[in-house]
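Please fill in the sequence for the structure shown.

STRUCTURE ENCODING:
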C-alpha cells in the first residue's frame, strides 16, 4: 500500500514538474529584447518583431517554433537595396565561404542576409547575447562584402 501511495506521489510530482518545464521552453520577444539590451545591442519591439540598427544598417528579429508567446528559434535578418541587382555568383561565394549568415537575393536582386539561433529557455540570456555579437559581425562583414558604406565601420 505504501509503495502505491509513494508511486502515485512520484507520478504527480513528475507530472507537475514536466508541465512547469514545458511552460518555460523557449523565450518571449521581451525576454530576448532584454537579453540583447543587456549585451549592449539597441533593440525595440514592433509588434511580433524586434527591430534594431548596427552602424546604420537596420535589421529585424522574429521568433519561430513558438508555442503561445515562447519561441525556441529566432531569425535575425537584414536586406539591402543597392539600386542594381546584386550578382548571384557573389551571393554563392558568400555562402560557400561563411559558416554563419545565410545570404540570398530578393526577386529584384537585392541582397539579404539572415542568421538563425536557438534557445532552450529563459535562462539562455548568454546564448542570446552571443548570437547578438555574432549577428553584429555578420552584418558588418556582409555590408563590406556587398560594398555598402557603413557608418562607424
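FILLED IN BY: designer on duty
SEQUENCE:
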Amino acid at each position: 500500500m505504501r509503495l502505491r501511495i509513494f508511486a502515485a506521489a512520484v507520478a504527480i510530482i513528475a507530472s507537475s514538474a514536466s508541465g512547469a518545464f514545458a511552460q518555460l521552453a523557449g523565450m518571449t520577444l521581451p525576454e530576448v529584447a532584454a537579453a540583447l539590451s543587456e549585451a549592449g545591442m539597441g533593440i525595440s519591439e514592433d509588434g511580433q518583431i524586434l527591430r534594431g540598427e548596427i552602424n546604420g544598417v537596420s535589421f529585424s528579429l522574429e521568433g519561430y517554433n513558438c508555442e503561445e508567446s515562447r519561441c525556441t528559434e529566432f531569425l535575425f535578418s537584414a536586406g539591402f537595396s543597392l539600386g542594381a541587382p546584386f550578382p548571384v555568383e557573389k551571393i554563392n561565394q558568400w555562402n560557400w565561404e561563411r559558416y554563419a549568415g545565410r545570404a540570398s537575393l530578393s526577386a529584384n536582386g537585392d541582397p539579404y542576409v539572415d542568421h538563425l539561433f536557438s534557445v532552450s529557455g529563459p535562462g539562455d540570456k548568454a546564448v542570446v547575447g552571443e548570437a547578438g555579437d555574432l549577428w553584429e559581425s555578420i552584418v558588418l562583414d556582409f555590408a563590406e562584402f556587398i560594398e555598402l558604406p557603413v557608418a562607424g565601420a
